[in-house]
Design a protein that fits this description.
This protein is of the alpha/beta class and about 325 residues long. It is about 40% helix and about 15% strand.
Length: about 325
């Protein structure tokens, strides 16, 4: 069976990454894509997930479903973040194996790496130090997902792969006032300040941390690229059974620089004020994506271009639903 003929389940198809994967699969000619909304399938419910896999019998799985949020959400709801993500991963990965799915792609997060990792962060620094405290429960859940894939590969000979994206943004992002990540949060705040003629926009932290950002359609292309590779070679001496791959843009900016770019893209003319009483998070998070680059993938979208597309998408939204 060719990949185009495969029955592909995309978990989390309404999220930013999942919807981008579905768009790309359709563009590539995949015609048998399975999706379920949360109202139709609760992925934290083991029996419901078991019944779904038994009934649908997918050939491939993209596991993009997760409970996600920014620093505020991670700090406020740590139990929800670790529980929900552990249950989603465990149920989907186990039931995929249970019905014989050989190819699965799990989407993790760059927060799996230690707070003070050597920069750029290579795949081999996983578990080498303490995590960033503000999102430790979420990070631990994502590390568990990686280890689930590795363990099923080791014991059962499956081909379950994990990708660790850098900070993502783009079409389909969440602009919730409390739970959004840095880029959508800034886009909303700068836009509302522009509409209200506010004199300044307050940004959390000192503005000094460096961050790397990747446009979501580039991430979708990386996911499909990795899923369709016939064989991924590992260095058995330095990376035994390593099944996770970094996905980054290869460039970074400070939060101060990011705020300035978003201010320009939105067309806001006021001042930017940094609140250094708020947490910065990790001082720098830059992914080493050489392994993926050597496997034939490169990002296409420049940051300013991607932010312009994201802002135009934001303008189409009903903000009452994002409150």
């Amino acid at each position: 069976m060719s990949d185009l003929d495969a029955k592909v389940y995309v978990a989390g198809h309404r999220g930013m990454v999942g919807s981008a994967i579905v768009r790309l699969l359709k563009e590539r000619g995949y015609s048998n894509i399975i999706t379920r909304a949360h109202s139709e399938l609760d992925l934290t419910n083991q029996q419901a997930v078991r019944d779904f896999f038994k009934d649908e019998q997918p050939n491939q799985v993209y596991l993009a479903a997760a409970k996600v949020g920014g620093i505020y959400a991670n700090n406020t709801y740590p139990a929800e973040f670790i529980y929900s993500n552990l249950m989603i991963e465990s149920n989907v990965i186990h039931e995929a194996w249970n019905i014989g799915v050989k190819k699965l792609l799990f989407l993790g997060s760059s927060c799996i790496y230690p707070k003070y990792s050597p920069q750029p962060m290579g795949e081999d620094v996983l578990l080498d130090g303490s995590l960033e405290p503000t999102n430790e429960p979420y990070a631990i859940a994502k590390i568990a997902g990686i280890k689930l894939c590795e363990s099923y590969n080791r014991q059962f000979g499956t081909d379950y792969r994990s990708v660790m994206p850098t900070n993502l943004y783009g079409v389909g992002d969440s602009y919730h006032l409390d739970n959004s990540h840095v880029i959508p949060g800034m886009i909303r705040r700068f836009h509302e300040a522009k509409m209200n003629d506010d004199a300044c926009v307050v940004v959390w932290g000192t503005g000094t941390p460096y961050r790397e950002f990747l446009y979501v359609d580039d991430m979708a292309e990386a996911c499909v690229h990795i899923m369709t590779l016939n064989k991924i070679k590992y260095d058995e001496h330095t990376q035994p059974m390593l099944s996770h791959i970094n996905v980054g843009s290869g460039s970074e900016v400070t939060i101060y620089q990011l705020a300035g770019i978003i201010k320009d893209v939105v067309g806001y003319s006021g001042e930017i004020v940094f609140d250094n009483t708020k947490p910065d998070g990790s001082p720098r998070k830059f992914m080493d994506s050489n392994r993926l680059n050597n496997l034939g993938w490169q990002p296409k979208t420049k940051l300013r271009d991607g932010l312009s597309i994201a802002y135009q998408d934001f303008l189409k939204l009903d903000l009452n639903k994002e409150a």
